[in-house]
Amino acid sequence: MVITLSAFDSIFAFRHSGSGQVMTRATIKRDPRFVWLWRMLAPPVAAYMFINAKLTLKTSIITLHHPGISYSGAAVYVNWHKYVPFLCIHHAQHQRWMLMSSDPYMEPVAVWCRWMGLTVVRGAPGERSRGSLVHLIEALKCGKSVALAADGPAGPAFRVKPGCVDLARAAGVPIIPVAYRSRKGRSNLKRWDQLYDVRKFDHIDVSYGAPIILDPSDPDATALERVQKALDEFELDLR
Predict the structure, then answer these.
(1) Pair 149, 79: CB distance under 8 Å
(2) Among 85, 69, 51, which residue's Cα sits nearest to residue 185?
(3) Cα–Cα distance between 239 and 232 in angstroms, integer?
(4) Which one has a higher pLDDT value, 107 or 21?
(5) Is a pLDDT exceeding 90 seen at residue 144?
(6) How far is 154 from 149, CA to CA, in rounded Å?
(7) HSE on the CB side for 5, CA within 13 Å?
(8) What is the H or E stretch that residue 78 is in?
C-alpha cells in the first residue's frame, strides 16, 4: 500500500510555454489556488487508500516489539518519514493525533487518516505553524499521544527537526521512536525519504524504542542530538 499521490504527478506536470509561464507539479501540489482540485480528488483517493489499508490489516500478521511498547501514558511518537505509510494505519488503531503538512495535495491523505481513526492536525513545525503546535500540546496534556515524522514532510531525510522536542518539552511527555520492518517490505531508494512500504499478506514487525526523557535544563541543541542519536541507533538495531 502506497499513500503518496505519485500516480497524479504525471497527470498534473505540464508547461504552458505560450505565455512564458511554467506550471510544474510542485506548483499544483502546493499552491493554495489549487486546493479545490485536491478537495475534489480527496473522497475517491481516500476511499481507495481506506480499502487498501483495511485489506493490509486483514491479511497481514502484525507483531509489536521493543521496550517502548509497555509505556502507557501520553507521548510524542516519532519516526522517519520513510515509515509514514504503515504507521498512519498503526497509529490510527490507537486513536492517536497526527501532525501533517498543510500542503493542498495532502488533502486526500488527511481525509484517509481521519477515516482510519487519527485526529489530524495540519501544519508541520517546519512551516512554523504555531497554532497547530498549540492544539497538539493541549492534546498531550489531556492524555492523548501525538505522532509525527521527525524529519518533517520534506526533509532533509533522517535529520531531526525541532518540532518533536518542542512538543515533548511543552507537554512534559517522553519521545518514543517507532519504526517497522516486514517480510515483503521494500524501500524506494529513488525517493528523498526512501519510503518503506508493506504489502498485503505480509508479516509486519512494529518496533518501539525506549522512551526518551528530555532534561528541561538541556539546551535545545543537546536535546535534538539525543533524539537524533536515539533514532539513528534504533534504525541500526532494526537492520
Answers:
(1) yes
(2) 85
(3) 11
(4) 107
(5) yes
(6) 10
(7) 25
(8) strand 76-79
- DSSP letters, 134-162, are HHHHHHHHTT--EEEETTTTT--TT---T
- pLDDT of residue 125 exceeding 50: no
d(CA 161, CA 34): 28
Residues ≥6 apart with Cβ < 8 Å to 8: 41
Which of 14, 16, 33 shows the shortest CA–CA distance to 25?
14
pLDDT at 15: 40
End-to-end CA distance of the chain: 22
Q: What is the pLDDT of residues 73-103, one digit of tens each?
A: 999 999 999 999 999 999 999 999 998 888 8
CB atoms within 10 A of CB 83: 24
Q: Which of 188, 153, 170 is nearest to 80 (CA)?
A: 153
Pairing relation of β-strands 97-100 and 186-187?
Answer: unpaired
Please give the Cα distance from 13 to 73 (Å, whole number).
Answer: 45
- What burial letters (b/e) apply to 196-219, b meaning 16+ CB within 10 Å? bbbeeebebbbbbbebbebeeeee
The cell numbers describing 227, all together, are: 533524539
